[in-house]
From TrEMBL:
GO biological process, one term: pantothenate biosynthetic process
Domain of life, per lineage: Bacteria
Family statement drawn from the similarity comment of this UniProt entry: Belongs to the ketopantoate reductase family.
Function per UniProt: Catalyzes the NADPH-dependent reduction of ketopantoate into pantoic acid.
Known catalytic reactions: (R)-pantoate + NADP(+) = 2-dehydropantoate + NADPH + H(+)
Membrane-spanning intervals of the chain: none
InterPro entries the UniProt entry points to: 6-PGluconate_DH-like_C_sf, 6PGD_dom2, ApbA, KPA_reductase, KPR-Related, KPR_N, NAD(P)-bd_dom_sf
Pathway, per record: Cofactor biosynthesis; (R)-pantothenate biosynthesis; (R)-pantoate from 3-methyl-2-oxobutanoate: step 2/2
Protein name: 2-dehydropantoate 2-reductase
Enzyme Commission number, as recorded: 1.1.1.169
Length: 301
């Protein structure tokens, strides 16, 4: 099975790199600058177990049709990435996006059809360092994937190629529910840390911090429920545990913001505010975070 990984940042570089390391037929679709970096330095993955140096195949345009396409870019780069990947997507290609929020699902279905667009959820705490190397910190490195309607004859083949590659991977018959649950978690983390400019632990130890986090989590969960995707018990427990921590937990959005980088404010926070407006639910805390992120984005555009 030919695999095209669109993007070789922290997420695409890690999962695509591990797949290549496991002997899968992996090609990275990247911009010219990243292609040059990979050619000269290789793809380096640093994690708690050590450092792995790979020399994967990288192209700046697809060279044929691929069986599986993993899309691992930020939401604000999605349109450009899909235009670049389109020549490599055939009639029977499976597309698994590793993006946050839900807007990318609609974009994929509209462009390539529901038969090719699947859902994907990854959990990993990773970043690129100053050398462009992938650095994975402690914590999970797992991937779930599946067709949006839960049923597709290609599931066994995709499962076979994505499992056994050095990270936790599984097929899911409820991938849409998982997408919503991750969205609620990330929106809560992103809104809290960017609005109050600190970690969850710091917020919890500040006056009114715990009450703020509890109210914000209630808002985000209520939006999902109003949209027809209530959190399941396990997701509720995870959300409650995350907002109760005293550890210096942050969000990738917060880390990008403090570095002056573009943020996914619209896709993660703004779209959830829009969902709340469609269903008539008040989300004052989430809306305040969205406004703050919009001000930041306008100033750093």
């Amino acid at each position: 099975m030919r695999i095209l990984v669109v993007g070789a940042g922290a997420t695409g570089g890690y999962f695509g790199g591990r797949l290549a390391q496991a002997g899968r037929d992996v090609t990275f679709l990247v911009r010219p600058g990243r292609a040059g970096r990979l050619a000269g330095r290789g793809l380096r993955i640093k994690d708690p177990d050590g450092e792995t140096v790979l020399h994967p195949r990288a192209v700046t345009a697809p060279d044929g049709v691929y069986d599986l396409v993993l899309v691992a870019v930020k939401s604000y780069s999605l349109d450009l990435a899909l235009s670049g990947a389109a020549p490599g997507i055939g009639r029977h290609t499976v597309i698994v996006p590793l993006l946050n929020g839900m807007r990318h699902i609609g974009a994929l279905v509209q462009r390539f059809g529901a038969d090719r667009a699947w859902g994907g959820v990854c959990m990993i705490h990773a970043t690129l360092d100053e050398d462009g190397d992938v650095v994975r910190m402690n914590g999970p490195h797992r991937l779930s994937f599946g067709p949006l309607d839960g049923d597709d004859e290609r599931v066994p083949a995709v499962t076979g190629v994505l499992t056994g590659a050095g990270f936790d991977a599984r097929a899911s018959a409820t991938i849409v529910a998982e997408l919503w649950e991750k969205w609620v978690l990330l929106a809560t983390l992103g809104a809290a840390t960017t609005l109050l400019r600190g970690s969850i632990g710091a917020i919890n130890t500040a006056p009114g911090g715990r009450a703020f986090l509890t109210a914000l989590a209630a808002e985000t969960a209520a939006v999902a429920a109003a949209a027809g995707h209530p959190l399941r018990p396990r997701a509720v427990a995870m959300l409650e545990a995350v907002i109760a921590t005293t550890e210096p937990t942050t969000s990738s959005m917060y880390r990008d913001l403090i570095q002056g980088l573009p943020v996914e404010g619209d896709a993660i926070v703004g779209d959830l505010v829009a969902e709340a407006e469609r269903h008539g639910g008040p989300v004052p805390l989430l809306a305040a975070a969205h406004t703050g992120l919009a001000v930041y984005t306008a100033a750093h555009r």
